[in-house]
Design brief:
The chain is an alpha/beta fold and about 375 residues long. It has one domain (about 20-360): Alpha-Beta Barrel (TIM Barrel). Helix content is about 45%, strand content about 10%. The chain contains 17 helices and 8 strands. Helix 5 runs parallel beside helix 7 and helix 16 (about 325-335) runs antiparallel to helix 17. The protein is globular, with a radius of gyration of 19 Å.
Length: about 375
């Protein structure tokens, strides 16, 4: 990407004598088979692609350069981030733009050991703001996914998320699109956007409608609000929660997540950059892991945060106190928590385990405490 994560104030990459992120560990984790389960397509554009699309399609970003973007993407708070994210969606116009974004994202993920990605797309925003029909969006996504598998070897699937600022009717439309899009790689209904005052329960009708038709629910929750956001979302039996770390504020809720095996998608750089945590030392991810809550690591919005999948593993090691065995567990959990059939899940996990076994003598990766027991999605 166009800037290193450490430019944003996250822990330094490596080179200090006491740094846990050694060259050997970096090489190991870069090749470690893993899934990227928390990344937004619109927030994962390459900076050059954002500027190119802005110039071609018309956007406030037209005529600007990458250094200006780096300055622009410094957020005052979560609301400021959400507003700028919406601006980034404005550069998309047709199916070819969505396909390009998917192909480039997969090419960026492949060298980081990612074999499977479930990419969130805010189709409802593109439809409402620019009138792009759903079928044009999903056709572009699927064309990109097919090309990505051929060119990069990464399997890409899609989560269509409802944006909390929009109406319950828009959420129902997104739920219906999830059902229609299952033959083109759509695997779940998501829920994102500005969380305060807009809990999952506000959209209960659409969530239950989708669930009754076999569409899993994978909302963001407990990111910009407290434990109450997590508890509210759990009423809809999600297989995973985006962020969810505020559950740590309530001991009983942590125990419930552990019992359910609900996977939390942890994105430390995102949390730091949007100001929902003031310092990585305050992030409860390690505490949740020790309690037995299954965790995965996600890059969220690489364009806006200067993050990457591999970078989040590095940040977990240098800033959150994750041991190599914790990183292995996060990668393995990401494969187990992927929304694929049992045969594909078993194949991915077997490849992961074989890779870890080959490295066993070079990197201390053996068993992490409290490995957790997430359920298989479905």
């Amino acid at each position: 990407m166009w800037t290193d994560v450490e430019d944003w104030g996250t822990p330094a990459a490596s080179g200090r004598r006491d740094d846990p992120w050694t060259p050997d560990l970096e090489a190991f984790v870069a090749g470690l088979p893993k899934a990227e389960l928390h990344v937004h397509l619109e927030g994962a554009l390459r900076p050059t692609t954002l500027l190119d699309l802005a110039h071609r399609n018309g956007s406030e970003f037209a005529g600007l350069d990458e250094r200006w973007l780096a300055e622009r993407f410094r957020f005052r708070d979560f609301r400021h981030f959400a507003d700028l994210y919406t601006t980034c969606t404005d550069v998309f116009r047709g199916p070819e733009d969505f396909a390009r974004a998917v192909i480039e994202l997969a090419a960026d993920l492949a060298p980081q050991g990612v074999v499977h990605a479930e990419v969130t797309c805010s189709a409802i925003t593109h439809h409402r703001d620019r009138g792009i029909p759903f079928d044009e969006v999903v056709d572009g996504l699927w064309a990109g996914a097919e090309a990505a598998r051929r060119d990069s070897g990464v399997v890409v699937r899609f989560v269509l998320d409802h944006v909390r600022d929009l109406s319950t009717e828009d959420c129902q439309r997104t739920a219906e699109w999830c059902v229609r899009g299952r033959d083109r790689g759509v695997v779940a209904l998501g829920l994102g956007g500005f969380e305060p005052g807009r809990p999952a329960s506000l959209f209960s009708g659409a969530i239950r409608w989708a669930r009754d038709r076999g569409v899993p629910f994978v909302p963001h929750a407990g990111e910009a609000v407290g434990a109450e956001g997590v508890r509210d979302a759990l009423a809809f039996d999600p297989v995973r929660l985006g962020h969810g770390f505020r559950a740590a504020d309530e001991r009983g809720l942590v125990a419930e997540l552990t019992r359910r095996g609900t996977v939390l998608e942890i994105c430390p750089t995102s949390n730091l950059r949007t100001g929902v945590v003031a310092d990585l030392a305050d992030h409860p991810a390690r505490r949740l892991r020790t309690a037995g809550v299954p965790l995965v690591l996600g890059s969220d919005d690489p364009l806006l945060f200067g993050s990457s999948t591999l970078g989040e593993y590095r940040t977990a090691a240098t800033g959150l106190g994750f041991l190599p065995a914790d990183l292995v567990a996060a990668a393995r959990t990401s494969l187990l928590a992927s929304l694929v059939d049992d045969g594909e899940r078993s194949r991915m996990v077997a490849a992961h385990d074989a890779y870890v076994a080959r490295w066993a003598g070079a990197v201390a990766v053996g068993p992490a405490p409290h490995s957790g027991g997430q359920r298989a999605p479905g």
